[in-house]
Amino acid sequence: MILSIESSCDDSSIAITTIANKKLIFHKKISQEQEHSRYGGVVPELASRLHAVALPQILEECKEYFPHLKAIAVTNQPGLGVTLLEGIAMAKTLSILLEIPLIAVHHLKAHIYSLFIEKDSIIPLLVLLISGGHTQVIRVESLGRMEILATSMDDSVGESFDKCAKMMGLGYPGGPIVEKLAKDGDEDRFDFPVPLRNSPLIAFSLSGLKNAVRLQVEKCRDESGDISLQDQRDISASFQKAVKLHLLQKSKKIFAKESISDFAIVGGASANRYIRDGYLKLCREFGKRLHSVPLEYCSDNAAMVGRYAIDAYHNGDFTDPNEIDVVTTKKYDNGTLL
Ligand code: KG4
Ligand code: ZN
User: Fold this and answer.
1) CA 31 to the chain's CA centroid
2) Which ligand is nearest to the CA of 133?
3) One fold for both 2-117+297-315 and 125-293?
4) Domains of the chain, residue spans
């Protein structure tokens, strides 16, 4: 079995996965959403302190599996430095004390492997990763060969939903809040610009759309600064529509070039039904099979880290516990996903 740890942002999670049959034996996640909600985003130092309490609490429940462990896996990049360190400290200690190898896991690769939890992998594969930190299209050819075909020039999809909710004074994370409001909204009421609509660039950008939303939010405020529920709904729906059209327009250009017939959406924002439905139609049009992640594994979790670690274990991709690095890089250019 492999014990895997995830602490790259605001979810403390540990999983135990059987190497031979990929079965998830144990999986627990303690989310800090409530604690960060009043700040409208994740406060790194607070997140780190909460991990320091939650991770040992979850580990306590895993002790019975210790004699069966063959490796420890931990997310070491990318993410918040102070929160990654909490998971890494625990993983290093376990690896040294139990005298078993350590596997350093790239968080974005783990999101891709969330598709394969308790399943065989599907490779080659085209993936749209939309999370709180990233928006990317990646061509996956093997565990070691993942090529970024398009990336975000500024805000990520999840981040733009979070900011949209924050501007309207709603909580965190913004994604589920905005999606829910949008269900009862008029998506054609506000004509928000679809980013890079007339640009040949195959890239993503959401900061311009964010500014358009900000201006509209200000216009909708009454004398006491409040925004009516219907305005919130219409802003959410119109914003969500522009995000979807942007993602689909750029994905279309990639689909026209890439012959791989399996396509997947992963990451926290891939839980969004409206965006999923848009991709369902696009995949039909291009004859591609759409794969998506069960809702419980879309956001950060240790099960996906453990699933990636199984393949890394078979490959012998181990890291010296005294050498493991925290890598906090947030943005990537097109090229190889290390
Ligand atoms: O993958 P994730 O858990 O963490 C990162 O690796 O960043 O993604 C979290 C992000 C948040 O920004 C959250 O607002 C967004 O995913 N999200 C959504 C939805 N559910 C979560 N965005 C849009 N629609 C949703 N239903
Ligand atoms: Zn994530």
Assistant:
1) 14
2) 1
3) yes
4) 2-117+297-315, 125-293
